[in-house]
DNA sequence: AAAAATAGATTACAGGTGTAGTCTTAATTT
DNA sequence: AAATTAAGACTACACCTGTAATCTATTTTT
């Protein structure tokens, strides 16, 4: 599995919003949340390419970047990893921890019910 | 929040199994899963103390370690962090991602239902 | 055409991390 | 008592990370 640092993920996440995209577009998108220097983002783009998380094509002297994987796939792998590390691979204890510490809203509960519902329908 | 590296967490996790405990006991517990040198674990214990995740009392020339926080508290904070980063703070998309990629067993579903049930009882 | 801006490439550098090795001192074994 | 072992302290070192600055080659602007 490709391992990304937090900062690298944030850059990739800005690309996932809409791609392919140029470095300047990515920098633009990140400018709201992060106060990163343009050079910092370029460095991170370079590292992402090196790690195989991005590819690019040249367009004149610009690069047009495309992610090499989908966000859902990446987050699924990270989630499995996380749940394995902290909860021995079981998801309920995570949710239960949230419930116990009052992190869950009625909306969360409704959404969770729907997920369960859909899962059960799918079993038939 | 105290930030622990993966290796540091694994050492702390071995202590959470049962504490207080000496370095040798922790090393013993870790010997099944990890092939770490004893010195490595000692280094990690030192770093954990420095970060404020552990304290110790002296017993002769040994230290007896105790965690400074509970596992559930630590994992809750990590979980919130994780879900914030990858799912904008909402838990259902994580579970949904699991469901879609067939990561959920009937047991997981049963456990999740119970969590929801308990939550609802608690609301009344 | 000369100057300035801009793209990416290369270099920088401190602090964290994994993974020990060496040093010092006290306890245990012979 | 001398030698060995074992506990923790200190040191090491390469790679990762966050966060850019500088260099080089084009474009764009004046």
CATH classification class of the largest domain in chain A: Mainly Alpha
Question: Pairing-aware structural class of the strands and helices of chain A?
Answer: mainly alpha
CATH superfamily of the largest domain in chain A: Winged helix-like DNA-binding domain superfamily/Winged helix DNA-binding domain
List the secondary-structure elements of chain A in sequence, H or E: HEHHEEHHH
CATH architecture of the largest domain in chain A: Orthogonal Bundle
Roughly what percent helix of chain A? 55-70%
- Return residue spans of chain A where pLDDT drops below 50 for at least 5 consecutive residues: none
Rg of chain A, nearest Å: 18 Å
Within the CATH hierarchy, at the fold level, what is the topology of the largest domain in chain A? Arc Repressor Mutant, subunit A
Quaternary assembly: homodimer
First and last CA, distance of chain A: 33 Å
The rough form of chain A would be described as elongated
Provide the β-strand percentage band of chain A. Answer: 5-15%
Average per-residue pLDDT of chain A, rounded, comes to: 97
In order across it, which strands form the biggest sheet of chain A?
A: 1-3-2
The count of helical stretches of chain A stands at 6
Could you please describe the fold and organization of this structure?
The structure is a homodimer of 124-residue chains. Chain A has 124 residues and is mostly helical. Chain A folds into two domains: 6-67, Orthogonal Bundle (Arc Repressor Mutant, subunit A), CATH 1.10.10; 71-123, Penicillinase repressor fold (Orthogonal Bundle). Chain A has helices at residues 6-16, 23-30, 38-51, 71-87, 92-100, 106-123, and strands spanning 21-22, 54-59, 62-67. In chain A, a hairpin with a 2-residue loop joins strand 2 and strand 3 (62-67). Chain A is elongated and about 55 Å long. The structure holds a DNA duplex (30 and 30 nucleotides).
């Amino acid at each position: 599995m490709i391992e990304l640092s937090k900062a690298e993920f944030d850059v990739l996440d800005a690309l996932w919003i809409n791609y392919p995209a140029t470095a300047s577009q990515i920098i633009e998108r990140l400018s709201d949340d992060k106060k990163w220097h343009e050079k910092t983002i370029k460095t991170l783009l370079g590292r992402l390419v090196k790690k195989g998380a991005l590819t690019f094509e040249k367009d004149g002297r610009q690069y047009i970047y495309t992610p090499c994987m989908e966000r859902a796939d990446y987050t699924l792998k990270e989630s499995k990893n996380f749940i394995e590390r902290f909860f021995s691979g079981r998801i309920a204890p995570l949710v239960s921890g949230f419930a116990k510490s009052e992190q869950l809203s009625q909306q969360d509960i409704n959404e969770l019910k729907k997920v369960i519902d859909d899962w059960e329908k799918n079993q038939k």
